[in-house]
């Protein structure tokens, strides 16, 4: 009887120990699962934080690059604007009268003398443009009138032909003189006025005052006419 009770106690202890062991194992598994979940969550959070940090750094870098690009563009635009302004100023600058070339036996140009020559050239330019415009208008009318019109005899046809040729010649001459005057004004502005375009010697102030659009000295002009 005592032996049976001892056996029963032993079996009960073993069962109790097994149950306790199972409970401990489950508790351990539960704790491990929770720990694993916590670790994964912490890892995700750290990854998210790292991504946010990278994004912030990227945005900061992009902003810095954009700011630097804008600053460079602004400096470049300012430099171009300054260059254009300097070019414009240098283009509009006119040569002083005293710096123009004269003969050794002549006094330098004065501002009043040069202003007088310039005024004469500009007046001729205005007059020649008006003459050319009028001549071209007359020439259009002449060209529209046939040479062998009804009732015209040989003399009338010849007169019309001569008038046309005369108008064409006058118009071409006026254009040539206009170009010479404009060229003289350009030479005054760039400082080459008074220098012979053939030999490079001074044309002479007196010659230019009498003939402002002259581009050759007396010797070179004479040689040109003899050819």
TrEMBL record:
<keyword id="KW-0479">Metal-binding</keyword>
<feature type="zinc finger region" description="dksA C4-type">
    <location>
        <begin position="196"/>
        <end position="220"/>
    </location>
</feature>
<dbReference type="GO" id="GO:0008270">
    <property type="term" value="F:zinc ion binding"/>
</dbReference>
<dbReference type="InterPro" id="IPR020458">
    <property type="entry name" value="Znf_DskA_TraR_CS"/>
</dbReference>
<feature type="compositionally biased region" description="Low complexity">
    <location>
        <begin position="1"/>
        <end position="71"/>
    </location>
</feature>
<feature type="region of interest" description="Disordered">
    <location>
        <begin position="1"/>
        <end position="108"/>
    </location>
</feature>
<feature type="coiled-coil region">
    <location>
        <begin position="111"/>
        <end position="145"/>
    </location>
</feature>
<keyword id="KW-0175">Coiled coil</keyword>
<feature type="domain" description="Zinc finger DksA/TraR C4-type">
    <location>
        <begin position="191"/>
        <end position="226"/>
    </location>
</feature>
<protein>
    <submittedName>
        <fullName>RNA polymerase-binding protein DksA</fullName>
    </submittedName>
</protein>
<feature type="compositionally biased region" description="Low complexity">
    <location>
        <begin position="83"/>
        <end position="99"/>
    </location>
</feature>
<keyword id="KW-0862">Zinc</keyword>
<dbReference type="InterPro" id="IPR037187">
    <property type="entry name" value="DnaK_N"/>
</dbReference>
<dbReference type="InterPro" id="IPR000962">
    <property type="entry name" value="Znf_DskA_TraR"/>
</dbReference>
<keyword id="KW-0863">Zinc-finger</keyword>
<dbReference type="Pfam" id="PF01258">
    <property type="entry name" value="zf-dskA_traR"/>
</dbReference>
<feature type="compositionally biased region" description="Basic residues">
    <location>
        <begin position="72"/>
        <end position="82"/>
    </location>
</feature>
């Amino acid at each position: 009887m005592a032996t049976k009770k001892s056996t029963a106690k032993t079996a009960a202890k073993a069962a109790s120990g097994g149950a306790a062991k199972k409970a401990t194992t489950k508790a351990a598994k539960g704790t491990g699962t929770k720990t694993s979940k916590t670790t994964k969550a912490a890892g995700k959070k750290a990854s998210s934080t790292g991504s946010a940090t990278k994004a912030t750094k990227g945005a900061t870098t992009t902003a810095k690059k954009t700011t630097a690009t804008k600053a460079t563009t602004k400096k470049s635009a300012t430099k171009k604007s300054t260059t254009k302004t300097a070019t414009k100023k240098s283009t509009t600058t006119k040569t002083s009268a005293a710096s123009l070339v004269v003969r050794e036996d002549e006094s330098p140009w004065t501002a009043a003398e040069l202003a007088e020559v310039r005024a004469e050239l500009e007046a001729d330019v205005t007059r020649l443009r008006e003459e050319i415009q009028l001549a071209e208008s007359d020439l259009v009318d002449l060209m529209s009138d046939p040479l062998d019109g009804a009732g015209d005899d040989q003399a009338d046809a010849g007169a019309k032909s001569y008038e046309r040729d005369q108008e064409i010649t006058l118009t071409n001459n006026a254009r040539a003189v206009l170009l010479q005057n404009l060229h003289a004004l350009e030479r005054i502005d760039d400082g080459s006025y008074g220098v012979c375009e053939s030999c490079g010697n001074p044309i002479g102030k007196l010659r230019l005052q009498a003939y402002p659009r002259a581009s050759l000295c007396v010797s070179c002009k004479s040689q040109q006419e003899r050819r």
